[in-house]
Amino acid sequence: MAQRIDVLSIFPEYMDPFRHALLGKAIEQGILSVGVHDLRQWATDKHKSVDDSPYGGGPGMVMKPEIWGAALDDVAARTGPAAAADLESAQPHLNRPRHDELQGVERHRYPSAPADERPLLIVPSPAGVPFKQADAQRWSNEPHLVFACGRYEGIDQRVIEDARRTYRVEEVSVGDYVLIGGEVATLVIAEAVVRLIPGVLGNRQSHEDDSFSDGLLEGPCYTKPRVWRDLEVPEVLLSGNHELVARWRREASLRRTLQRRPELLEQAGLSQQDREYLTTLEQS
Ligand code: ADE
Protein backbone atom coordinates (compact mmCIF):
# COMPACT_ATOMS: atom_id res chain seq x y z
CA MET A 1 0.00 0.00 0.00
CA ALA A 2 1.17 3.53 -0.75
CA GLN A 3 2.66 5.52 2.08
CA ARG A 4 0.54 8.46 3.12
CA ILE A 5 1.36 12.05 4.06
CA ASP A 6 -1.21 14.53 5.35
CA VAL A 7 -0.44 18.20 5.91
CA LEU A 8 -2.54 20.63 7.92
CA SER A 9 -1.94 24.32 7.29
CA ILE A 10 -3.75 27.63 6.98
CA PHE A 11 -1.73 28.15 3.77
CA PRO A 12 -2.26 24.91 1.86
CA GLU A 13 -0.95 26.52 -1.36
CA TYR A 14 2.51 26.54 0.28
CA MET A 15 2.49 22.79 -0.28
CA ASP A 16 2.32 23.09 -4.06
CA PRO A 17 5.92 21.90 -4.48
CA PHE A 18 4.66 18.49 -3.34
CA ARG A 19 3.13 18.10 -6.78
CA HIS A 20 6.42 18.62 -8.60
CA ALA A 21 9.57 16.69 -9.43
CA LEU A 22 10.43 13.80 -7.15
CA LEU A 23 7.46 14.18 -4.83
CA GLY A 24 5.06 14.47 -7.75
CA LYS A 25 6.55 11.43 -9.37
CA ALA A 26 6.16 9.39 -6.19
CA ILE A 27 2.47 10.39 -6.15
CA GLU A 28 2.05 9.38 -9.81
CA GLN A 29 3.72 6.04 -9.31
CA GLY A 30 1.33 5.25 -6.49
CA ILE A 31 4.23 5.03 -4.00
CA LEU A 32 2.89 8.01 -2.05
CA SER A 33 -0.49 9.61 -1.50
CA VAL A 34 -0.71 13.14 -0.11
CA GLY A 35 -3.57 15.07 1.47
CA VAL A 36 -3.17 18.82 2.04
CA HIS A 37 -5.88 20.29 4.25
CA ASP A 38 -6.82 23.88 4.97
CA LEU A 39 -7.07 24.11 8.75
CA ARG A 40 -9.80 26.74 8.45
CA GLN A 41 -12.17 24.00 7.30
CA TRP A 42 -12.39 23.05 10.98
CA ALA A 43 -12.95 26.62 12.22
CA THR A 44 -16.49 27.10 13.46
CA ASP A 45 -16.96 30.85 14.03
CA LYS A 46 -18.13 33.13 11.24
CA HIS A 47 -14.66 34.68 10.72
CA LYS A 48 -13.02 31.23 10.57
CA SER A 49 -10.48 32.47 13.10
CA VAL A 50 -7.75 30.06 14.13
CA ASP A 51 -5.82 32.06 16.72
CA ASP A 52 -6.31 33.97 19.97
CA SER A 53 -4.23 36.02 22.43
CA PRO A 54 -1.87 34.11 24.74
CA TYR A 55 -2.74 33.38 28.37
CA GLY A 56 -0.19 35.16 30.55
CA GLY A 57 0.04 38.02 28.08
CA GLY A 58 2.85 38.86 25.68
CA PRO A 59 3.10 39.52 21.98
CA GLY A 60 1.69 37.44 19.15
CA MET A 61 -1.16 35.00 18.89
CA VAL A 62 -1.58 31.31 19.71
CA MET A 63 -3.40 28.79 17.54
CA LYS A 64 -6.63 27.62 19.15
CA PRO A 65 -6.85 24.05 20.45
CA GLU A 66 -10.43 23.22 19.41
CA ILE A 67 -9.72 23.62 15.70
CA TRP A 68 -6.49 21.64 15.78
CA GLY A 69 -8.11 18.91 17.91
CA ALA A 70 -10.97 18.40 15.45
CA ALA A 71 -8.64 18.52 12.44
CA LEU A 72 -6.20 15.98 13.88
CA ASP A 73 -9.03 13.62 14.87
CA ASP A 74 -10.42 13.78 11.32
CA VAL A 75 -7.04 13.27 9.66
CA ALA A 76 -6.27 10.22 11.82
CA ALA A 77 -9.70 8.71 11.06
CA ARG A 78 -9.91 10.04 7.46
CA THR A 79 -13.32 11.46 8.21
CA GLY A 80 -14.93 14.87 7.68
CA PRO A 81 -13.05 17.37 5.49
CA ALA A 82 -9.93 15.16 5.73
CA ALA A 83 -11.61 12.51 3.58
CA ALA A 84 -11.61 14.90 0.57
CA ALA A 85 -9.60 14.44 -2.65
CA ASP A 86 -5.87 13.79 -2.61
CA LEU A 87 -3.21 15.88 -4.25
CA GLU A 88 -2.33 15.00 -7.84
CA SER A 89 1.06 15.32 -9.45
CA ALA A 90 1.60 18.53 -11.46
CA GLN A 91 3.38 16.86 -14.35
CA PRO A 92 3.16 13.51 -16.03
CA HIS A 93 6.48 11.81 -15.18
CA LEU A 94 5.38 8.23 -15.72
CA ASN A 95 7.64 6.20 -17.99
CA ARG A 96 10.22 8.95 -17.95
CA PRO A 97 13.24 7.55 -16.18
CA ARG A 98 15.34 9.86 -14.04
CA HIS A 99 19.09 10.11 -14.54
CA ASP A 100 19.72 8.54 -11.16
CA GLU A 101 17.58 5.48 -11.68
CA LEU A 102 19.37 2.20 -12.11
CA GLN A 103 17.86 -0.94 -13.52
CA GLY A 104 17.60 -3.84 -11.14
CA VAL A 105 18.51 -1.89 -8.02
CA GLU A 106 17.17 -3.60 -4.95
CA ARG A 107 14.61 -1.62 -2.96
CA HIS A 108 16.20 -0.90 0.36
CA ARG A 109 14.42 -0.12 3.62
CA TYR A 110 16.16 1.59 6.48
CA PRO A 111 15.66 -0.38 9.68
CA SER A 112 13.06 0.92 12.10
CA ALA A 113 11.63 0.03 15.50
CA PRO A 114 8.62 -2.35 15.73
CA ALA A 115 5.44 -0.85 14.31
CA ASP A 116 3.00 1.11 16.45
CA GLU A 117 -0.38 1.45 14.77
CA ARG A 118 -0.66 5.15 15.54
CA PRO A 119 0.35 7.52 12.71
CA LEU A 120 3.38 9.74 13.32
CA LEU A 121 2.53 13.40 13.90
CA ILE A 122 5.38 15.77 13.09
CA VAL A 123 5.12 19.28 14.50
CA PRO A 124 7.81 21.59 13.07
CA SER A 125 8.85 24.21 15.58
CA PRO A 126 11.98 26.27 16.24
CA ALA A 127 11.69 24.89 19.80
CA GLY A 128 11.77 21.27 18.59
CA VAL A 129 14.66 18.81 18.67
CA PRO A 130 16.97 19.12 15.62
CA PHE A 131 15.77 17.14 12.60
CA LYS A 132 18.55 14.82 11.36
CA GLN A 133 19.21 12.48 8.44
CA ALA A 134 18.70 9.54 10.82
CA ASP A 135 15.11 10.79 11.44
CA ALA A 136 14.54 10.99 7.68
CA GLN A 137 15.72 7.37 7.36
CA ARG A 138 13.42 6.12 10.13
CA TRP A 139 10.42 8.12 8.94
CA SER A 140 10.83 6.87 5.36
CA ASN A 141 9.35 3.59 6.69
CA GLU A 142 6.28 5.15 8.27
CA PRO A 143 2.98 4.22 6.59
CA HIS A 144 1.32 7.49 7.68
CA LEU A 145 3.00 10.82 8.45
CA VAL A 146 0.96 13.87 9.45
CA PHE A 147 2.48 17.37 9.54
CA ALA A 148 0.90 20.08 11.68
CA CYS A 149 2.05 23.49 10.45
CA GLY A 150 1.78 26.13 13.14
CA ARG A 151 1.83 29.88 12.54
CA TYR A 152 2.06 32.85 14.86
CA GLU A 153 3.64 32.09 18.24
CA GLY A 154 2.72 28.43 17.94
CA ILE A 155 -0.05 25.93 18.70
CA ASP A 156 -1.67 25.64 22.16
CA GLN A 157 0.53 23.00 23.86
CA ARG A 158 -2.50 20.93 24.95
CA VAL A 159 -3.03 20.02 21.28
CA ILE A 160 0.31 18.21 21.30
CA GLU A 161 -0.46 16.49 24.62
CA ASP A 162 -3.93 15.41 23.49
CA ALA A 163 -2.66 14.22 20.09
CA ARG A 164 -0.49 11.61 21.87
CA ARG A 165 -3.64 9.52 22.38
CA THR A 166 -4.03 9.11 18.63
CA TYR A 167 -0.53 9.74 17.31
CA ARG A 168 3.10 9.28 18.14
CA VAL A 169 4.31 12.89 18.22
CA GLU A 170 7.67 14.47 17.35
CA GLU A 171 8.36 18.22 17.63
CA VAL A 172 11.33 19.03 15.38
CA SER A 173 13.32 22.05 14.25
CA VAL A 174 15.00 22.35 10.85
CA GLY A 175 17.64 24.78 12.12
CA ASP A 176 18.54 27.46 14.62
CA TYR A 177 16.58 30.28 13.03
CA VAL A 178 12.92 31.27 13.10
CA LEU A 179 10.64 30.86 10.08
CA ILE A 180 7.21 32.46 9.80
CA GLY A 181 5.49 29.10 10.14
CA GLY A 182 5.92 25.35 9.85
CA GLU A 183 5.11 25.10 6.12
CA VAL A 184 8.61 25.52 4.69
CA ALA A 185 10.01 23.28 7.44
CA THR A 186 7.42 20.65 6.44
CA LEU A 187 8.58 20.80 2.83
CA VAL A 188 12.19 20.39 3.95
CA ILE A 189 11.40 17.39 6.14
CA ALA A 190 9.03 15.78 3.62
CA GLU A 191 11.58 16.03 0.83
CA ALA A 192 14.33 14.55 2.99
CA VAL A 193 11.99 11.67 3.95
CA VAL A 194 10.31 10.98 0.60
CA ARG A 195 13.54 10.69 -1.38
CA LEU A 196 14.42 7.75 0.90
CA ILE A 197 11.14 5.88 0.36
CA PRO A 198 12.00 2.73 -1.58
CA GLY A 199 11.39 3.20 -5.29
CA VAL A 200 11.41 7.03 -5.23
CA LEU A 201 15.11 7.46 -5.94
CA GLY A 202 16.12 4.36 -7.86
CA ASN A 203 19.76 4.48 -6.88
CA ARG A 204 20.32 3.27 -3.34
CA GLN A 205 24.03 4.06 -3.52
CA SER A 206 23.16 7.73 -3.90
CA HIS A 207 21.61 7.73 -0.40
CA GLU A 208 24.47 5.88 1.16
CA ASP A 209 26.98 8.44 -0.10
CA ASP A 210 24.86 11.38 1.09
CA SER A 211 26.34 13.87 3.49
CA PHE A 212 25.46 12.78 7.07
CA SER A 213 24.68 9.16 6.13
CA ASP A 214 28.05 8.13 7.57
CA GLY A 215 28.19 11.09 9.94
CA LEU A 216 30.49 13.14 7.67
CA LEU A 217 29.95 15.85 5.05
CA GLU A 218 30.29 14.68 1.45
CA GLY A 219 33.34 16.04 -0.39
CA PRO A 220 33.36 17.93 -3.72
CA CYS A 221 32.31 16.32 -7.00
CA TYR A 222 33.31 16.96 -10.63
CA THR A 223 32.17 16.15 -14.16
CA LYS A 224 33.38 16.80 -17.72
CA PRO A 225 35.24 18.74 -19.08
CA ARG A 226 38.52 17.74 -17.45
CA VAL A 227 39.77 21.35 -17.66
CA TRP A 228 37.33 24.24 -17.36
CA ARG A 229 38.45 27.89 -17.20
CA ASP A 230 41.96 26.68 -16.37
CA LEU A 231 40.66 24.66 -13.45
CA GLU A 232 41.49 20.95 -13.49
CA VAL A 233 39.64 17.99 -12.05
CA PRO A 234 41.82 16.29 -9.38
CA GLU A 235 44.07 13.82 -11.23
CA VAL A 236 43.25 10.83 -9.04
CA LEU A 237 39.59 10.87 -10.17
CA LEU A 238 40.76 10.15 -13.72
CA SER A 239 43.08 7.33 -12.67
CA GLY A 240 40.52 4.51 -12.84
CA ASN A 241 42.00 3.16 -9.58
CA HIS A 242 38.90 2.57 -7.44
CA GLU A 243 40.81 2.12 -4.23
CA LEU A 244 42.74 5.37 -4.67
CA VAL A 245 39.54 7.22 -5.64
CA ALA A 246 37.71 5.88 -2.57
CA ARG A 247 40.61 6.97 -0.30
CA TRP A 248 40.74 10.41 -1.93
CA ARG A 249 36.97 10.84 -1.43
CA ARG A 250 37.21 9.76 2.18
CA GLU A 251 40.01 12.24 2.86
CA ALA A 252 38.15 15.06 1.07
CA SER A 253 35.13 14.26 3.22
CA LEU A 254 37.22 14.28 6.42
CA ARG A 255 38.91 17.54 5.39
CA ARG A 256 35.62 19.28 4.69
CA THR A 257 34.03 18.02 7.89
CA LEU A 258 37.01 19.20 9.95
CA GLN A 259 36.81 22.66 8.35
CA ARG A 260 33.06 23.16 8.39
CA ARG A 261 31.51 20.91 11.03
CA PRO A 262 34.27 19.67 13.36
CA GLU A 263 31.71 18.64 16.00
CA LEU A 264 30.44 15.90 13.65
CA LEU A 265 33.78 14.09 13.88
CA GLU A 266 33.10 13.14 17.51
CA GLN A 267 30.12 10.98 16.53
CA ALA A 268 31.37 9.68 13.16
CA GLY A 269 32.58 6.10 12.81
CA LEU A 270 36.29 6.73 12.08
CA SER A 271 38.93 4.14 11.24
CA GLN A 272 42.52 4.24 12.50
CA GLN A 273 43.53 5.45 9.02
CA ASP A 274 40.94 8.29 9.22
CA ARG A 275 42.29 9.36 12.61
CA GLU A 276 45.86 9.37 11.36
CA TYR A 277 44.83 11.50 8.38
CA LEU A 278 43.01 13.98 10.66
CA THR A 279 46.11 14.22 12.86
CA THR A 280 48.24 15.14 9.81
CA LEU A 281 45.65 17.83 8.91
CA GLU A 282 45.58 19.25 12.42
CA GLN A 283 49.38 19.44 12.46
CA SER A 284 49.67 21.18 9.08
N1 ADE B 1 8.80 27.03 12.47
C1 ADE B 1 9.39 28.23 12.60
N2 ADE B 1 10.71 28.12 12.61
C2 ADE B 1 10.99 26.80 12.50
C3 ADE B 1 12.18 26.02 12.49
N3 ADE B 1 13.39 26.60 12.58
N4 ADE B 1 12.09 24.69 12.38
C4 ADE B 1 10.88 24.12 12.30
N5 ADE B 1 9.73 24.78 12.32
C5 ADE B 1 9.77 26.10 12.42
Description:
This protein folds into two domains: 205 residues, SPOUT methyltransferase, trefoil knot domain (Alpha/beta knot, 3-Layer(aba) Sandwich), CATH 3.40.1280.10; 57 residues, tRNA(m1g37)methyltransferase, domain 2 (Trp Operon Repressor, Chain A, Orthogonal Bundle). 29% of the residues lie in helices and 16% in strands. The strands form three sheets. The chain has a five-stranded parallel β-sheet with strand order 2-1-6-5-8, sandwiched between helices. It has a three-stranded mixed β-sheet with strand order 3-4-7. Strands 9-10 form a two-stranded antiparallel sheet. Strand 1, helix 1 and strand 2 form a beta-alpha-beta unit. Helix 2 runs parallel beside helix 4 and helix 3 crosses helix 5. The protein is elongated and about 70 Å long. The N and C termini lie far apart (55 Å). About 2% of the residues have low confidence. Bound molecules: adenine.
The small molecules bound here are: adenine
**Helical coverage, percent range:** 25-40%
Strand proportion, as a percent range, falls in: 15-25%
Mind telling me the C-alpha Rg?
A: 22 Å
Biggest sheet: strands side by side, in what order?
2-1-6-5-8
Q: Return the CATH topology of the largest domain.
A: Alpha/beta knot
Mean pLDDT: 90
Q: Main beta sheet, described?
A: 5 strands, parallel
Global morphology: elongated
CATH class of the largest domain: Alpha Beta
Total helical elements: 8
* Computed structural class: alpha/beta
How many domains comprise the coordinates?
Answer: 2
Number of strands: 10
Through-space gap between termini: 55 Å
Gross CATH architecture of the largest domain:
3-Layer(aba) Sandwich
Pick out the low-confidence regions: 99-105
SSE arrangement, N to C: EHEEEHEHEEHEHHEEHH
Domain tRNA methyltransferase TRMD/TRM10-type: 4-78, 118-267
Subcellular location: Cytoplasm
Main location: cytoplasm
Subunit structure: Homodimer.
